Structure formats: C-alpha cells, structure tokens
TrEMBL record:
SUPFAM superfamilies, per the entry: LemA-like
A Pfam match: LemA
Alphabetized UniProt keyword annotations: Membrane, Transmembrane, Transmembrane helix
UniProt family annotation: Belongs to the LemA family.
A GO cellular component entry from the record: membrane
Record's bilayer topology term: Single-pass membrane protein
Signal peptide interval: none
Domain of life where this protein originates: Bacteria
Name assigned to this protein: LemA family protein
Length: 182
C-alpha cells in the first residue's frame, strides 16, 4: 500500500513537471514566432525604402542628409541581430521616415507623384502591421514572463534555465514629435 502511494505521488510529480516544462516551451516558442512576425514586417518595410529613396531623390536635392539618415537607418535594421538591436534600429528608421515625410510636405510635385503616393501608402500599411506585430509579440512576452514568475513554474523555469524575454519598446525619441527645421 505504501509503495503504491509513493509510486502515485512520483508519477503525479513527474506528470506535473512534464506539463509545466511543456507549457513553458510552448510559451517561449510563441514569443519567438511573434518576434519572427515583427521581423517579416520590418524586412518588408526595408524592401520599400530603396524605391522610396530613389523616388524622392529627384525632388529633394537639397535634403541629402534626410535621405542619408533613412538609408543609414535601413542598413542598421538589416544588420540587427537580436530583438534589442532590431528594436533600436526600427526606432531609428521610424524616426528617419517621419522626418522624410515631414520634409516631403515642402515638395508639392513629390506629393503629387503616383509612385510616391503608392510607396507612402504601402509604408503606412506596413507600419500598421509592424505595430500589430509588436503588440502581438509583447502580449506573448507578457504571458511567457508571467508564467516564469508564477508558482510552481518559477522553480522549473530556474531549473531548466528559462530566461525572461525583453519587450519590444519604442525609444524615447520615437515617442516625441518630429521637428523639422529649415
């Protein structure tokens, strides 16, 4: 009888351990999948940048530093290797694009260009998708990090080296309005 009780307790503990471990793995994988969705949208946006720069170049000959900043920010985003670097590069590119579109207001012929309008529309659509992907990622990070901190999963998280994930956050400069000086 005692042996049966001990075996049942061991089996229950083993099943609980497997269940908690699998739950943590599932949540971590959801975070990684959500991050890959951000990556897809950022790459889509980056692929639009060269066309935008080429379209704008002819109209904005006196705004070379704005175009260089967009190109530099795009390059940083393409070479970012982890979520933190990618978030920083994305914030830099978003700021550069805001400045570009603010400056474009001074070029009526550019604003009237069908190519520019189409690229601006595609970028706006992509920005919406990036924001949605960020929100989805952050929701999954919250769920995963909460699971790591709750009892009894916190014991297993430490034992199996599950580490918290970072949220995808906007930089302070991205939160501010764009100021354009002429």
């Amino acid at each position: 009888m005692l042996l049966t009780i001990v075996l049942v307790v061991i089996i229950v503990l083993l099943l609980a351990t497997v269940s908690i471990f699998n739950s943590l793995v599932t949540k971590r994988n959801r975070v990684h999948e959500a991050y890959s969705q951000i990556d897809v949208q950022l790459k889509r946006r980056s692929s639009l940048i060269p066309n935008l720069v080429e379209t704008v170049k002819g109209y904005m000959k006196h705004e070379r530093e704005v175009l260089e900043e967009v190109t530099k920010a795009r390059s940083a985003l393409m070479h970012a290797g982890n979520p933190k670097d990618q978030a920083a590069a994305d914030n830099q590119l978003t700021g550069a694009l805001k400045t570009l579109f603010a400056v474009s207001e001074n070029y009526p012929d550019l604003k009237a260009s069908d190519t520019f309008k189409q690229l601006q529309s595609e970028l706006a659509d992509t920005e919406t998708k990036v924001a949605s992907s960020r929100q989805f990622y952050n929701t999954n990070v919250l769920d995963y990090n909460t699971a790591l901190q709750t009892f009894p999963a916190s014991f297993f998280a430490q034992a199996f080296h599950f580490l918290p994930e970072a949220f995808f956050q906007a930089s302070e400069s991205e939160k501010m309005d764009v100021k354009v000086n002429f």
